[in-house]
Write a structure and sequence with these properties.
CATH superfamily of chain B: MetI-like
Largest sheet of chain A: none
Structural class of chain A: mainly alpha
Number of domains of chain B: 1
Structural class of chain B: mainly alpha
Number of helices of chain B: 13
Radius of gyration of chain A: 26 Å
Distance between the termini of chain A: 59 Å
Oligomer: heterodimer
Radius of gyration of chain B: 24 Å
Number of strands of chain A: 0
Strand content of chain B: under 5%
Number of strands of chain B: 2
Shape of chain B: globular
CATH topology of the largest domain in chain A: MetI-like fold
CATH architecture of the largest domain in chain A: Orthogonal Bundle
Chain lengths: 287, 296
Protein backbone atom coordinates (compact mmCIF):
# COMPACT_ATOMS: atom_id res chain seq x y z
CA UNK A 1 0.00 0.00 0.00
CA UNK A 2 1.22 3.41 -0.89
CA UNK A 3 0.10 5.60 2.00
CA UNK A 4 1.61 8.71 0.48
CA UNK A 5 -0.57 8.35 -2.57
CA UNK A 6 -3.73 7.73 -0.56
CA UNK A 7 -3.01 10.76 1.57
CA UNK A 8 -2.37 12.89 -1.47
CA UNK A 9 -5.62 11.81 -3.07
CA UNK A 10 -7.49 12.58 0.12
CA UNK A 11 -5.93 16.00 0.29
CA UNK A 12 -6.83 16.71 -3.32
CA UNK A 13 -10.44 15.68 -2.67
CA UNK A 14 -10.50 18.00 0.31
CA UNK A 15 -9.22 20.89 -1.75
CA UNK A 16 -11.82 20.32 -4.48
CA UNK A 17 -14.57 20.12 -1.89
CA UNK A 18 -13.43 23.34 -0.25
CA UNK A 19 -13.23 25.17 -3.57
CA UNK A 20 -16.76 24.10 -4.47
CA UNK A 21 -17.99 25.22 -1.05
CA UNK A 22 -16.46 28.66 -1.44
CA UNK A 23 -17.80 28.99 -4.97
CA UNK A 24 -21.29 28.12 -3.81
CA UNK A 25 -21.16 30.52 -0.87
CA UNK A 26 -19.79 33.31 -3.03
CA UNK A 27 -22.54 32.71 -5.58
CA UNK A 28 -25.21 33.09 -2.90
CA UNK A 29 -23.46 36.17 -1.51
CA UNK A 30 -23.61 37.70 -5.00
CA UNK A 31 -27.31 36.88 -5.30
CA UNK A 32 -27.89 38.56 -1.94
CA UNK A 33 -25.81 41.63 -2.68
CA UNK A 34 -26.66 42.16 -6.33
CA UNK A 35 -30.03 43.89 -5.77
CA UNK A 36 -28.34 46.32 -3.39
CA UNK A 37 -25.60 47.03 -5.89
CA UNK A 38 -28.16 47.49 -8.62
CA UNK A 39 -30.24 49.99 -6.66
CA UNK A 40 -27.17 52.00 -5.77
CA UNK A 41 -25.88 51.92 -9.33
CA UNK A 42 -29.20 52.84 -10.90
CA UNK A 43 -29.67 55.67 -8.42
CA UNK A 44 -26.56 57.46 -9.68
CA UNK A 45 -27.25 57.00 -13.39
CA UNK A 46 -28.78 60.02 -15.04
CA UNK A 47 -32.34 59.70 -16.34
CA UNK A 48 -31.34 59.97 -19.98
CA UNK A 49 -28.40 57.59 -19.58
CA UNK A 50 -30.60 54.97 -17.92
CA UNK A 51 -33.30 55.10 -20.55
CA UNK A 52 -30.75 55.16 -23.35
CA UNK A 53 -29.27 51.82 -22.34
CA UNK A 54 -30.90 48.92 -24.06
CA UNK A 55 -28.32 46.70 -22.45
CA UNK A 56 -28.00 47.98 -18.87
CA UNK A 57 -24.37 48.61 -18.00
CA UNK A 58 -22.86 47.29 -14.81
CA UNK A 59 -21.12 50.52 -13.86
CA UNK A 60 -21.33 54.17 -14.70
CA UNK A 61 -18.56 56.60 -15.47
CA UNK A 62 -20.60 59.73 -14.89
CA UNK A 63 -22.37 59.33 -11.56
CA UNK A 64 -24.87 62.01 -10.71
CA UNK A 65 -26.67 62.97 -7.52
CA UNK A 66 -29.50 64.63 -9.41
CA UNK A 67 -31.80 61.68 -8.69
CA UNK A 68 -31.41 62.21 -4.96
CA UNK A 69 -32.34 65.86 -5.40
CA UNK A 70 -35.36 64.74 -7.43
CA UNK A 71 -36.30 62.17 -4.81
CA UNK A 72 -36.51 64.85 -2.15
CA UNK A 73 -38.11 67.58 -4.24
CA UNK A 74 -40.58 65.85 -6.59
CA UNK A 75 -42.12 63.63 -3.95
CA UNK A 76 -42.48 64.12 -0.24
CA UNK A 77 -39.68 61.78 0.73
CA UNK A 78 -38.49 63.95 3.63
CA UNK A 79 -42.02 63.85 5.04
CA UNK A 80 -42.27 60.04 4.80
CA UNK A 81 -38.89 59.84 6.42
CA UNK A 82 -39.72 62.03 9.43
CA UNK A 83 -43.07 60.28 9.84
CA UNK A 84 -41.31 56.94 10.00
CA UNK A 85 -38.78 58.20 12.53
CA UNK A 86 -41.51 59.62 14.76
CA UNK A 87 -43.58 56.46 14.43
CA UNK A 88 -40.60 54.17 15.10
CA UNK A 89 -39.32 56.09 18.12
CA UNK A 90 -42.74 56.57 19.70
CA UNK A 91 -43.84 52.97 19.18
CA UNK A 92 -40.58 51.54 20.48
CA UNK A 93 -40.47 53.84 23.52
CA UNK A 94 -44.09 53.17 24.47
CA UNK A 95 -43.67 49.44 23.97
CA UNK A 96 -40.56 49.35 26.15
CA UNK A 97 -42.47 51.01 29.02
CA UNK A 98 -45.39 48.59 28.69
CA UNK A 99 -43.30 45.44 28.45
CA UNK A 100 -40.79 46.40 31.15
CA UNK A 101 -43.57 46.86 33.70
CA UNK A 102 -45.34 43.69 32.63
CA UNK A 103 -42.14 41.62 32.67
CA UNK A 104 -41.29 43.06 36.07
CA UNK A 105 -44.66 42.06 37.47
CA UNK A 106 -44.31 38.51 36.17
CA UNK A 107 -40.70 38.08 37.23
CA UNK A 108 -40.48 39.88 40.54
CA UNK A 109 -43.91 40.18 42.12
CA UNK A 110 -46.15 37.51 43.59
CA UNK A 111 -49.85 37.79 43.22
CA UNK A 112 -52.70 35.31 43.02
CA UNK A 113 -53.43 34.15 39.50
CA UNK A 114 -50.00 35.08 38.19
CA UNK A 115 -49.38 31.79 36.42
CA UNK A 116 -52.83 31.78 34.91
CA UNK A 117 -52.43 35.31 33.56
CA UNK A 118 -49.01 34.46 32.19
CA UNK A 119 -50.34 31.36 30.45
CA UNK A 120 -53.10 33.46 28.91
CA UNK A 121 -50.50 35.95 27.71
CA UNK A 122 -48.44 33.19 26.12
CA UNK A 123 -51.46 31.73 24.37
CA UNK A 124 -51.97 35.10 22.69
CA UNK A 125 -48.68 34.55 20.89
CA UNK A 126 -50.37 32.02 18.63
CA UNK A 127 -52.91 34.47 17.27
CA UNK A 128 -52.04 35.66 13.79
CA UNK A 129 -52.24 39.40 13.30
CA UNK A 130 -54.39 38.87 10.19
CA UNK A 131 -57.27 37.77 12.42
CA UNK A 132 -57.27 40.79 14.69
CA UNK A 133 -56.37 43.46 12.17
CA UNK A 134 -59.92 43.58 10.78
CA UNK A 135 -61.49 44.63 14.07
CA UNK A 136 -58.56 46.90 14.88
CA UNK A 137 -59.17 48.70 11.63
CA UNK A 138 -62.81 49.20 12.57
CA UNK A 139 -61.91 50.21 16.14
CA UNK A 140 -59.39 52.81 15.07
CA UNK A 141 -61.80 54.11 12.43
CA UNK A 142 -64.56 54.42 15.00
CA UNK A 143 -62.26 56.27 17.35
CA UNK A 144 -61.60 58.75 14.57
CA UNK A 145 -57.93 57.94 14.63
CA UNK A 146 -57.36 57.28 10.95
CA UNK A 147 -54.59 59.44 9.61
CA UNK A 148 -53.16 60.16 13.05
CA UNK A 149 -50.00 58.97 14.69
CA UNK A 150 -52.00 57.47 17.56
CA UNK A 151 -53.88 55.30 15.14
CA UNK A 152 -50.61 54.06 13.70
CA UNK A 153 -48.92 53.50 17.04
CA UNK A 154 -51.46 52.15 19.51
CA UNK A 155 -52.09 48.62 18.15
CA UNK A 156 -48.40 47.74 18.13
CA UNK A 157 -47.21 48.86 21.55
CA UNK A 158 -47.42 45.46 23.19
CA UNK A 159 -45.65 42.28 22.32
CA UNK A 160 -46.23 39.15 24.32
CA UNK A 161 -43.07 37.65 22.93
CA UNK A 162 -40.88 40.50 24.18
CA UNK A 163 -42.57 40.42 27.59
CA UNK A 164 -41.70 36.74 27.74
CA UNK A 165 -38.10 37.35 26.65
CA UNK A 166 -37.56 40.10 29.21
CA UNK A 167 -39.26 38.16 32.00
CA UNK A 168 -36.93 35.21 31.43
CA UNK A 169 -34.02 37.61 31.66
CA UNK A 170 -35.26 39.32 34.81
CA UNK A 171 -35.73 35.97 36.51
CA UNK A 172 -32.06 35.16 36.16
CA UNK A 173 -31.11 38.02 38.44
CA UNK A 174 -30.30 36.46 41.83
CA UNK A 175 -32.84 36.81 44.63
CA UNK A 176 -30.07 37.94 47.02
CA UNK A 177 -29.64 41.16 45.11
CA UNK A 178 -33.28 42.02 45.69
CA UNK A 179 -33.02 41.22 49.41
CA UNK A 180 -29.87 43.30 49.73
CA UNK A 181 -31.60 46.20 48.02
CA UNK A 182 -34.59 45.79 50.33
CA UNK A 183 -32.33 45.90 53.40
CA UNK A 184 -30.87 49.11 52.06
CA UNK A 185 -34.40 50.44 51.82
CA UNK A 186 -34.54 50.63 48.03
CA UNK A 187 -38.03 50.91 46.62
CA UNK A 188 -39.28 48.35 44.09
CA UNK A 189 -39.36 50.87 41.31
CA UNK A 190 -35.86 52.10 42.02
CA UNK A 191 -34.64 48.52 42.11
CA UNK A 192 -36.18 47.92 38.71
CA UNK A 193 -34.51 50.92 37.12
CA UNK A 194 -31.18 50.91 38.96
CA UNK A 195 -30.48 47.20 39.17
CA UNK A 196 -32.65 45.02 36.95
CA UNK A 197 -32.59 47.09 33.79
CA UNK A 198 -28.83 47.70 33.76
CA UNK A 199 -28.18 44.00 34.32
CA UNK A 200 -30.58 43.07 31.51
CA UNK A 201 -29.21 45.72 29.20
CA UNK A 202 -28.13 43.33 26.39
CA UNK A 203 -31.64 41.89 26.11
CA UNK A 204 -33.21 45.33 26.28
CA UNK A 205 -30.96 46.60 23.49
CA UNK A 206 -31.77 43.55 21.35
CA UNK A 207 -35.49 44.07 21.82
CA UNK A 208 -35.18 47.75 20.94
CA UNK A 209 -33.26 47.00 17.74
CA UNK A 210 -35.66 44.27 16.62
CA UNK A 211 -38.63 46.54 17.27
CA UNK A 212 -37.03 49.41 15.38
CA UNK A 213 -36.49 47.15 12.37
CA UNK A 214 -40.08 45.93 12.57
CA UNK A 215 -41.43 49.48 12.77
CA UNK A 216 -39.27 50.77 9.95
CA UNK A 217 -40.50 48.02 7.65
CA UNK A 218 -44.15 47.93 8.66
CA UNK A 219 -46.44 48.24 5.73
CA UNK A 220 -49.83 46.58 6.12
CA UNK A 221 -51.21 48.45 9.11
CA UNK A 222 -50.01 51.91 8.01
CA UNK A 223 -51.52 51.28 4.61
CA UNK A 224 -54.92 50.48 6.11
CA UNK A 225 -54.89 53.38 8.52
CA UNK A 226 -53.50 56.21 6.39
CA UNK A 227 -54.65 57.50 3.06
CA UNK A 228 -53.49 61.03 3.72
CA UNK A 229 -50.01 61.47 2.32
CA UNK A 230 -49.05 63.61 5.33
CA UNK A 231 -49.01 60.44 7.46
CA UNK A 232 -47.37 58.01 5.07
CA UNK A 233 -44.46 55.93 6.29
CA UNK A 234 -41.58 55.01 4.01
CA UNK A 235 -43.10 51.70 2.90
CA UNK A 236 -46.31 53.41 1.85
CA UNK A 237 -44.24 56.19 0.37
CA UNK A 238 -42.46 53.65 -1.82
CA UNK A 239 -45.76 52.30 -3.11
CA UNK A 240 -47.04 55.81 -3.67
CA UNK A 241 -43.87 56.74 -5.55
CA UNK A 242 -44.17 53.62 -7.64
CA UNK A 243 -47.78 54.17 -8.57
CA UNK A 244 -48.10 57.94 -8.83
CA UNK A 245 -44.71 59.42 -8.06
CA UNK A 246 -42.11 60.45 -10.60
CA UNK A 247 -44.03 59.02 -13.44
CA UNK A 248 -43.55 55.33 -13.97
CA UNK A 249 -40.51 55.81 -16.13
CA UNK A 250 -38.17 57.67 -13.83
CA UNK A 251 -36.60 54.59 -12.37
CA UNK A 252 -33.28 56.21 -11.32
CA UNK A 253 -35.14 58.66 -9.06
CA UNK A 254 -37.20 55.77 -7.69
CA UNK A 255 -34.01 53.90 -6.89
CA UNK A 256 -32.57 56.97 -5.18
CA UNK A 257 -35.62 56.99 -2.91
CA UNK A 258 -35.17 53.28 -2.26
CA UNK A 259 -31.53 53.83 -1.30
CA UNK A 260 -32.45 56.65 1.09
CA UNK A 261 -35.04 54.43 2.74
CA UNK A 262 -32.76 51.41 3.02
CA UNK A 263 -29.63 53.12 4.30
CA UNK A 264 -30.66 53.71 7.95
CA UNK A 265 -31.43 50.03 8.49
CA UNK A 266 -28.29 48.88 6.73
CA UNK A 267 -26.20 51.14 8.96
CA UNK A 268 -28.05 49.83 12.01
CA UNK A 269 -27.35 46.31 10.84
CA UNK A 270 -23.65 46.90 10.17
CA UNK A 271 -23.20 48.38 13.66
CA UNK A 272 -25.26 45.82 15.56
CA UNK A 273 -25.11 42.74 13.34
CA UNK A 274 -23.93 40.44 16.14
CA UNK A 275 -26.70 41.56 18.48
CA UNK A 276 -29.37 41.41 15.80
CA UNK A 277 -28.42 37.93 14.68
CA UNK A 278 -28.19 36.65 18.25
CA UNK A 279 -31.55 38.19 19.05
CA UNK A 280 -33.27 36.74 16.00
CA UNK A 281 -31.86 33.27 16.54
CA UNK A 282 -33.19 33.36 20.10
CA UNK A 283 -36.67 33.18 18.78
CA UNK A 284 -37.59 35.98 16.47
CA UNK A 285 -39.47 35.23 13.31
CA UNK A 286 -39.99 37.40 10.35
CA UNK A 287 -42.95 39.72 10.76
CA UNK B 1 -49.93 41.67 51.08
CA UNK B 2 -53.12 43.15 49.67
CA UNK B 3 -51.27 46.32 48.81
CA UNK B 4 -48.71 44.33 46.91
CA UNK B 5 -51.36 42.56 44.83
CA UNK B 6 -52.87 45.83 43.91
CA UNK B 7 -49.47 47.09 42.81
CA UNK B 8 -48.73 44.05 40.63
CA UNK B 9 -51.96 44.53 38.69
CA UNK B 10 -51.04 48.16 38.27
CA UNK B 11 -47.77 47.14 36.61
CA UNK B 12 -49.66 44.78 34.34
CA UNK B 13 -52.44 47.22 33.56
CA UNK B 14 -50.99 48.79 30.39
CA UNK B 15 -50.15 45.42 28.85
CA UNK B 16 -53.53 43.94 29.74
CA UNK B 17 -55.37 47.00 28.46
CA UNK B 18 -53.60 47.02 25.10
CA UNK B 19 -53.83 43.26 24.63
CA UNK B 20 -57.47 43.33 25.63
CA UNK B 21 -58.45 46.05 23.19
CA UNK B 22 -56.25 45.06 20.25
CA UNK B 23 -55.95 41.27 20.62
CA UNK B 24 -58.65 39.61 22.72
CA UNK B 25 -61.64 41.71 21.77
CA UNK B 26 -60.81 41.57 18.03
CA UNK B 27 -60.45 37.81 18.28
CA UNK B 28 -64.02 37.48 19.50
CA UNK B 29 -65.23 40.15 17.16
CA UNK B 30 -63.82 38.53 14.04
CA UNK B 31 -66.10 35.53 14.60
CA UNK B 32 -69.07 37.81 15.17
CA UNK B 33 -68.37 39.71 11.97
CA UNK B 34 -67.97 36.57 9.96
CA UNK B 35 -71.51 35.44 10.83
CA UNK B 36 -73.23 38.77 10.35
CA UNK B 37 -74.82 38.77 6.93
CA UNK B 38 -74.98 41.91 4.86
CA UNK B 39 -73.11 44.01 7.38
CA UNK B 40 -72.93 47.63 6.37
CA UNK B 41 -69.97 49.46 7.82
CA UNK B 42 -71.54 52.89 7.29
CA UNK B 43 -74.76 52.25 9.18
CA UNK B 44 -73.36 49.40 11.28
CA UNK B 45 -76.40 47.25 10.62
CA UNK B 46 -76.85 43.76 9.29
CA UNK B 47 -79.85 41.73 8.26
CA UNK B 48 -79.17 38.29 9.54
CA UNK B 49 -76.77 35.75 10.88
CA UNK B 50 -75.52 32.65 9.19
CA UNK B 51 -72.93 31.19 6.92
CA UNK B 52 -73.60 33.41 3.92
CA UNK B 53 -70.26 35.25 4.19
CA UNK B 54 -68.33 32.01 4.05
CA UNK B 55 -70.29 30.81 1.08
CA UNK B 56 -69.80 34.15 -0.68
CA UNK B 57 -66.04 34.06 -0.12
CA UNK B 58 -65.73 30.44 -1.17
CA UNK B 59 -67.56 31.19 -4.42
CA UNK B 60 -65.63 34.36 -5.19
CA UNK B 61 -63.30 33.71 -8.16
CA UNK B 62 -60.82 36.23 -6.75
CA UNK B 63 -60.64 34.25 -3.52
CA UNK B 64 -60.17 30.98 -5.36
CA UNK B 65 -57.41 32.54 -7.43
CA UNK B 66 -55.80 33.82 -4.22
CA UNK B 67 -55.99 30.36 -2.64
CA UNK B 68 -54.43 28.80 -5.72
CA UNK B 69 -51.62 31.38 -5.79
CA UNK B 70 -50.93 30.98 -2.10
CA UNK B 71 -50.81 27.19 -2.29
CA UNK B 72 -48.45 27.21 -5.28
CA UNK B 73 -46.24 29.71 -3.47
CA UNK B 74 -46.17 27.61 -0.31
CA UNK B 75 -45.54 24.31 -2.07
CA UNK B 76 -42.64 25.71 -4.07
CA UNK B 77 -40.93 28.09 -1.66
CA UNK B 78 -40.96 26.11 1.57
CA UNK B 79 -39.03 23.05 0.30
CA UNK B 80 -36.77 25.11 -1.96
CA UNK B 81 -35.79 27.63 0.70
CA UNK B 82 -35.33 25.01 3.41
CA UNK B 83 -33.21 22.79 1.17
CA UNK B 84 -31.12 25.66 -0.12
CA UNK B 85 -30.65 27.01 3.41
CA UNK B 86 -29.50 23.58 4.56
CA UNK B 87 -27.00 23.36 1.72
CA UNK B 88 -25.61 26.83 2.43
CA UNK B 89 -25.47 26.27 6.18
CA UNK B 90 -23.56 23.02 5.76
CA UNK B 91 -21.16 24.87 3.49
CA UNK B 92 -20.81 27.70 5.99
CA UNK B 93 -20.21 25.26 8.79
CA UNK B 94 -17.39 23.51 6.95
CA UNK B 95 -15.24 26.58 6.40
CA UNK B 96 -13.21 28.66 8.81
CA UNK B 97 -11.80 31.73 7.07
CA UNK B 98 -14.38 34.35 6.04
CA UNK B 99 -17.20 32.45 7.72
CA UNK B 100 -18.39 35.43 9.71
CA UNK B 101 -18.29 37.70 6.68
CA UNK B 102 -20.45 35.30 4.69
CA UNK B 103 -22.83 34.90 7.62
CA UNK B 104 -23.27 38.65 7.93
CA UNK B 105 -23.82 39.12 4.20
CA UNK B 106 -26.35 36.29 4.10
CA UNK B 107 -28.35 37.87 6.89
CA UNK B 108 -28.61 41.28 5.24
CA UNK B 109 -32.00 40.75 3.50
CA UNK B 110 -33.61 40.17 6.90
CA UNK B 111 -33.21 43.79 7.96
CA UNK B 112 -34.06 45.49 4.71
CA UNK B 113 -37.40 46.94 3.78
CA UNK B 114 -39.02 44.27 1.61
CA UNK B 115 -41.11 46.86 -0.22
CA UNK B 116 -37.97 48.74 -1.21
CA UNK B 117 -35.96 45.72 -2.37
CA UNK B 118 -39.04 44.33 -4.10
CA UNK B 119 -38.97 47.37 -6.33
CA UNK B 120 -35.39 46.51 -7.31
CA UNK B 121 -36.46 42.96 -8.14
CA UNK B 122 -39.28 44.34 -10.22
CA UNK B 123 -36.82 46.42 -12.22
CA UNK B 124 -34.41 43.53 -12.65
CA UNK B 125 -37.18 41.33 -14.06
CA UNK B 126 -39.25 43.90 -15.89
CA UNK B 127 -39.36 44.15 -19.65
CA UNK B 128 -40.02 47.67 -20.87
CA UNK B 129 -40.01 49.41 -24.21
CA UNK B 130 -36.51 50.68 -23.50
CA UNK B 131 -34.86 47.56 -22.25
CA UNK B 132 -35.56 43.91 -21.68
CA UNK B 133 -34.10 44.15 -18.19
CA UNK B 134 -31.21 42.45 -16.48
CA UNK B 135 -32.66 38.99 -16.07
CA UNK B 136 -33.84 38.79 -19.65
CA UNK B 137 -30.37 39.71 -20.84
CA UNK B 138 -29.06 36.84 -18.80
CA UNK B 139 -31.65 34.54 -20.35
CA UNK B 140 -30.75 35.80 -23.84
CA UNK B 141 -27.10 35.20 -23.07
CA UNK B 142 -27.87 31.54 -22.46
CA UNK B 143 -29.89 31.43 -25.65
CA UNK B 144 -33.40 31.87 -24.25
CA UNK B 145 -36.25 34.15 -25.21
CA UNK B 146 -37.15 37.32 -23.34
CA UNK B 147 -40.19 37.06 -21.10
CA UNK B 148 -42.12 39.84 -19.41
CA UNK B 149 -41.96 38.63 -15.84
CA UNK B 150 -44.05 41.39 -14.32
CA UNK B 151 -46.97 41.73 -16.72
CA UNK B 152 -46.51 38.60 -18.79
CA UNK B 153 -47.69 35.00 -18.51
CA UNK B 154 -48.88 33.54 -15.22
CA UNK B 155 -45.99 31.12 -14.69
CA UNK B 156 -43.45 33.92 -15.21
CA UNK B 157 -45.10 36.09 -12.58
CA UNK B 158 -45.33 33.14 -10.23
CA UNK B 159 -41.65 32.43 -10.79
CA UNK B 160 -40.63 35.97 -9.80
CA UNK B 161 -42.86 35.77 -6.76
CA UNK B 162 -41.25 32.50 -5.68
CA UNK B 163 -37.71 33.74 -6.30
CA UNK B 164 -38.30 36.90 -4.31
CA UNK B 165 -40.00 35.02 -1.48
CA UNK B 166 -37.07 32.61 -1.23
CA UNK B 167 -34.64 35.53 -1.26
CA UNK B 168 -36.55 37.14 1.61
CA UNK B 169 -36.92 34.08 3.84
CA UNK B 170 -33.42 32.65 3.41
CA UNK B 171 -31.60 34.78 6.03
CA UNK B 172 -33.70 33.50 8.89
CA UNK B 173 -33.36 29.87 7.84
CA UNK B 174 -29.62 30.07 7.27
CA UNK B 175 -29.16 31.68 10.68
CA UNK B 176 -31.19 29.04 12.50
CA UNK B 177 -29.56 26.12 10.67
CA UNK B 178 -25.99 27.36 11.10
CA UNK B 179 -26.44 27.70 14.85
CA UNK B 180 -28.09 24.26 14.95
CA UNK B 181 -25.18 22.74 13.02
CA UNK B 182 -22.63 24.42 15.26
CA UNK B 183 -24.25 22.89 18.33
CA UNK B 184 -23.74 19.27 17.20
CA UNK B 185 -20.99 17.95 19.49
CA UNK B 186 -17.66 17.55 17.73
CA UNK B 187 -17.05 14.23 19.51
CA UNK B 188 -19.72 12.52 17.38
CA UNK B 189 -17.89 13.51 14.24
CA UNK B 190 -14.58 12.38 15.67
CA UNK B 191 -16.06 9.00 16.52
CA UNK B 192 -17.41 8.67 12.97
CA UNK B 193 -14.02 9.61 11.59
CA UNK B 194 -12.27 6.91 13.59
CA UNK B 195 -14.73 4.37 12.22
CA UNK B 196 -13.90 5.58 8.73
CA UNK B 197 -17.49 6.65 8.03
CA UNK B 198 -17.97 8.40 4.72
CA UNK B 199 -18.91 12.08 4.70
CA UNK B 200 -22.34 11.43 3.23
CA UNK B 201 -23.11 8.77 5.81
CA UNK B 202 -21.93 11.05 8.60
CA UNK B 203 -24.25 13.73 7.26
CA UNK B 204 -27.34 11.53 6.97
CA UNK B 205 -26.78 9.51 10.15
CA UNK B 206 -25.40 12.12 12.54
CA UNK B 207 -25.92 15.66 11.30
CA UNK B 208 -29.47 15.37 9.96
CA UNK B 209 -30.92 13.53 12.97
CA UNK B 210 -29.21 15.96 15.34
CA UNK B 211 -30.64 19.05 13.64
CA UNK B 212 -33.98 17.53 12.65
CA UNK B 213 -35.91 19.41 15.37
CA UNK B 214 -34.68 22.70 13.93
CA UNK B 215 -35.49 21.65 10.37
CA UNK B 216 -39.02 20.84 11.41
CA UNK B 217 -39.25 24.13 13.26
CA UNK B 218 -38.25 25.90 10.04
CA UNK B 219 -40.69 23.90 7.94
CA UNK B 220 -43.54 24.71 10.31
CA UNK B 221 -42.76 28.43 10.58
CA UNK B 222 -42.05 28.44 6.84
CA UNK B 223 -45.51 27.09 6.07
CA UNK B 224 -47.14 29.60 8.39
CA UNK B 225 -45.13 32.49 6.97
CA UNK B 226 -45.70 31.54 3.34
CA UNK B 227 -49.45 31.18 3.85
CA UNK B 228 -49.47 34.77 5.07
CA UNK B 229 -47.56 36.12 2.09
CA UNK B 230 -48.72 39.53 1.06
CA UNK B 231 -46.35 42.49 1.15
CA UNK B 232 -43.71 40.81 -1.02
CA UNK B 233 -46.35 40.45 -3.72
CA UNK B 234 -47.33 44.10 -3.36
CA UNK B 235 -43.68 45.05 -3.69
CA UNK B 236 -43.38 43.36 -7.06
CA UNK B 237 -46.81 43.65 -8.65
CA UNK B 238 -48.23 46.80 -7.03
CA UNK B 239 -51.24 47.23 -4.78
CA UNK B 240 -53.82 46.01 -7.27
CA UNK B 241 -52.99 42.33 -6.97
CA UNK B 242 -56.33 41.13 -8.31
CA UNK B 243 -55.68 42.87 -11.61
CA UNK B 244 -52.29 41.20 -11.81
CA UNK B 245 -53.89 37.85 -10.96
CA UNK B 246 -51.31 37.47 -8.22
CA UNK B 247 -53.39 38.03 -5.11
CA UNK B 248 -52.85 35.97 -1.96
CA UNK B 249 -55.33 35.02 0.75
CA UNK B 250 -54.09 37.75 3.07
CA UNK B 251 -54.20 40.18 0.18
CA UNK B 252 -57.83 39.20 -0.41
CA UNK B 253 -58.62 39.88 3.25
CA UNK B 254 -57.16 43.38 3.05
CA UNK B 255 -58.79 44.11 -0.27
CA UNK B 256 -62.16 43.22 1.21
CA UNK B 257 -61.47 45.46 4.16
CA UNK B 258 -60.12 48.47 2.42
CA UNK B 259 -59.19 49.88 -0.94
CA UNK B 260 -61.21 50.03 -4.15
CA UNK B 261 -63.08 46.82 -3.46
CA UNK B 262 -63.18 47.33 0.31
CA UNK B 263 -65.79 48.05 2.94
CA UNK B 264 -66.78 44.46 3.66
CA UNK B 265 -65.37 43.50 7.06
CA UNK B 266 -67.69 40.47 7.14
CA UNK B 267 -66.22 38.94 4.01
CA UNK B 268 -62.74 39.85 5.22
CA UNK B 269 -63.38 38.11 8.54
CA UNK B 270 -64.73 34.99 6.87
CA UNK B 271 -61.69 34.85 4.56
CA UNK B 272 -59.29 35.41 7.48
CA UNK B 273 -60.92 32.61 9.45
CA UNK B 274 -60.72 30.27 6.46
CA UNK B 275 -57.02 31.13 6.21
CA UNK B 276 -56.58 30.48 9.92
CA UNK B 277 -58.29 27.10 9.59
CA UNK B 278 -55.98 26.15 6.70
CA UNK B 279 -52.86 27.22 8.60
CA UNK B 280 -53.98 25.42 11.74
CA UNK B 281 -54.67 22.20 9.83
CA UNK B 282 -51.32 22.27 8.07
CA UNK B 283 -49.49 23.03 11.31
CA UNK B 284 -51.19 20.15 13.12
CA UNK B 285 -50.31 17.78 10.28
CA UNK B 286 -46.72 19.04 10.38
CA UNK B 287 -46.53 18.51 14.12
CA UNK B 288 -47.88 14.99 13.78
CA UNK B 289 -45.30 14.13 11.12
CA UNK B 290 -42.50 15.70 13.13
CA UNK B 291 -43.48 13.78 16.27
CA UNK B 292 -43.00 10.58 14.30
CA UNK B 293 -39.73 11.54 12.69
CA UNK B 294 -37.78 13.80 15.00
CA UNK B 295 -35.30 11.85 17.06
CA UNK B 296 -35.20 14.19 20.02
Amino acid sequence: MNYDKIEQAARRRDRVRRTITYLLLTLWALIVLFPFYWMLLTSVKSYSAYNGEYVPSFFTLSPTLQNYVDAFTTVNLARYFTNTIVFTLATTALMMVVIIFAAYAFARLDFPGKNLVFALFLSLMMIPSELVIITNFVTITNWGMRNTFWGLILPSVTSVFYIYLLKENFEQIPEELYKAAKVDGTSDLKYLFKVMLPISQPTVVTIVILKVIECWNSYVWPRLITDDEAYFLVSNGIQEIRENGFGRENIPAMMAAVVVISVPLIILFLVFHKKIMAGVSRGGTKG
Amino acid sequence: MMKKNWKAWLYLLPAIAFLGVFMVYPLVDVFVYSFEEGYNSASQTFWGTGLYNYSYVLHDPYFLQAVKNTFILVIITVPVSTGLALLISVGLNSIKPLRELYQTVFFLPYVTNTLAVGLVFMILFKKTAYSDGMINLLINFFGGQSVDFIEGPYWAKMLVMCIYTVWVVMPFKILILTSALASVPQSYYNAAKIDGTSKWRTFTRITLPMISPMIFYLVITGFIGAFKAYSDEVAIFGTNLNAAGMNTIVGYVYDMLYGDSGGYPSYASAAALILFAIVLTITVINLMISRKNVQY
